[in-house]
Structure to design on (521 residues):
């Protein structure tokens, strides 16, 4: 006798415009939800889907409602209330397909992350916070320039030992960033007197913002702080997201996630490189593919290990390190780097570069696809092929491969104007008009959603040394004016100095700024 066809249901929640409605088949007997088949998804499309779920507009209930403490499955304080249940419904409803990918990716990274958290004396379940931060996708680059599984901005990453140069970004390294996140969370936990919910919320909002919220509302209860309007919706939803992710990931079948295709735990061997070495050479010596090396070493932004660094520890696929030391020792030092990055300065010509590095002008032209050899620009990056056996791969890796997250949006409130929104979001009125196709109209309505950030794009960034500057506020100074003077963003100044959006500067105040050298506009 044929079994009855699965029941088809749809799930719709409030404000779910950012995610498509998903038709789901429910196997009544097994309690599993079966999604319709999906066409092959490219990596970039997965990142876009991850960002949509990570940044979805959510409106959970204002009150927490009935609070339930689940059975003791966790070493982190987990509760269920209406806010958490709303997020569970969202992850099991409109966001199910993407959340399924997160669960399947989690098994690749969580074992290592939990071990790091254990060594640092933190609850191991807290490592699931990486799912809420990035969906375990190291390629995403948020509008706030946060990067990696733990979404560190550059200044916070540097505080915890994560460097970002033209050659590498340690915020993208799974182990280094996890250790930094564990130590940051430990510091936040101590700052907020052992209150994990405040510590987690401050990981999102910043400790200064949370301290001011506590002072403003005279409460250290995270749920009470969420009732006010001071904290952003993103922060109010942050703890419920973690709790929902924990509930589902510990008991996936209970929530209809069955037969998950979990990825194998991260495993690799390590080889030691005494000097800068091209990954193409490593592929020849180990048999590993170039793409495998890049996946295992996501901090590497270019085609080789960082110049000037000795004894670099490079991950290679398990089983590929055998005999490597002997093979590597047989390669002359001059042949370990097949390319050199050269930034054009005044007086440079292709002929001069060819003579300096004993290479052919035609090879420089061919590799860099130069159409007019006489039109070199000062500051332009060229890749110089030091050996005849060269490929175009280094040229492709001149640009950073970060993928910007989706554009920021702002929901218009009563009393807002284009001028006030522009000041609040650190953009110009002209940009708001262009991005939202407003023309010369000043008419905006409460509830209207405006785009308040530039379009997503692949971006190339040139790393420059940051210098710490302490600026003393003078009469008449504004954050906007100071930002223009030092070519930094107003929101960054606020973040570096834990300032609220309505903070009033006083003459004599000292502001800490991170600027590129002595750069001023």
């Amino acid at each position: 006798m044929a079994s009855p066809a699965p029941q088809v249901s749809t799930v719709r929640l409030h404000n779910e415009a950012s995610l498509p409605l998903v038709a789901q088949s429910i196997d009544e007997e097994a309690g599993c939800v079966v999604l319709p088949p999906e066409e092959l998804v490219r990596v970039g499309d997965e990142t876009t889907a991850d960002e949509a779920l990570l940044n979805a507009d959510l409106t959970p209930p204002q009150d927490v409602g009935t609070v339930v403490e689940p059975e003791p499955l966790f070493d982190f304080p987990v509760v269920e209330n209406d806010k958490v249940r709303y997020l569970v419904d969202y992850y099991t409803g409109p966001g199910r397909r993407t959340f399924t990918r997160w669960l399947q990716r989690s098994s690749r990274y969580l074992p290592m992350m939990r071990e790091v958290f254990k060594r640092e004396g933190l609850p191991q379940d807290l490592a699931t916070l990486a799912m809420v931060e990035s969906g375990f996708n190291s390629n995403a680059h948020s509008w706030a320039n946060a990067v990696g599984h733990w979404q560190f901005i550059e200044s916070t990453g540097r505080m915890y030992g994560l460097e970002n140069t033209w050659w590498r970004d340690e915020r993208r390294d799974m182990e280094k960033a996890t250790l930094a996140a564990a130590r940051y969370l430990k510091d936040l936990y101590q700052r907020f007197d052992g209150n994990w919910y405040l510590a987690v919320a401050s990981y999102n909002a910043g400790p200064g913002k949370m301290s001011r919220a506590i002072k403003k509302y005279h409460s250290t209860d995270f749920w009470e702080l969420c009732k006010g309007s001071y904290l952003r919706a993103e922060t109010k939803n942050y703890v419920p997201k973690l709790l929902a992710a924990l509930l589902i990931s510990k008991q996936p079948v209970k929530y209809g996630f069955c037969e998950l295709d979990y990825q194998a735990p991260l495993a690799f061997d390590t080889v030691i490189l005494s000097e800068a070495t091209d990954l193409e050479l490593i592929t020849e010596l180990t048999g590993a593919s170039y793409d495998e090396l890049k996946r295992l070493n996501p901090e590497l932004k270019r085609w080789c290990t960082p110049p000037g660094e000795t004894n670099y520890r490079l991950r290679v696929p398990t089983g590929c390190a055998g005999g490597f030391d002997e093979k590597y020792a047989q390669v002359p030092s001059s042949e370990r780097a097949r390319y050199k990055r050269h930034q054009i300065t005044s007086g440079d010509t292709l002929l001069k570069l060819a003579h300096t590095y004993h290479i052919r002008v035609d090879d420089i032209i061919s590799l860099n696809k130069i159409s007019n050899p006489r039109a070199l620009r000062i500051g332009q990056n060229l890749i110089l092929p030091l050996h005849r056996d060269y490929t175009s791969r280094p040229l492709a890796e001149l640009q950073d491969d970060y993928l910007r997250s989706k554009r920021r949006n702002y929901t218009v409130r009563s009393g807002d104007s284009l001028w006030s929104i522009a000041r609040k979001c650190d953009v110009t009125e002209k940009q708001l008009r262009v991005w939202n196709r407003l023309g010369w109209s000043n008419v905006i309505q409460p509830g209207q959603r405006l785009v308040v950030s530039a379009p997503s794009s692949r971006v190339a960034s040139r790393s420059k040394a940051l210098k710490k500057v302490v600026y003393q506020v003078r009469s008449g100074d504004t954050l906007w004016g100071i930002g223009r003077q030092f070519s930094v963003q107003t929101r960054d100044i606020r973040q570096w100095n834990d300032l609220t959006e309505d903070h009033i500067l006083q003459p004599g105040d000292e502001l800490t700024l991170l600027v590129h050298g002595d750069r001023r506009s």
Q: What stands out?
A: The longest helix spans residues 96-119. Residues 1-22, 39-43, 456-464 have pLDDT under 50 and may be disordered. The first strand starts at residue 7 and ends at 10. The chain has 21 helices and 13 strands.
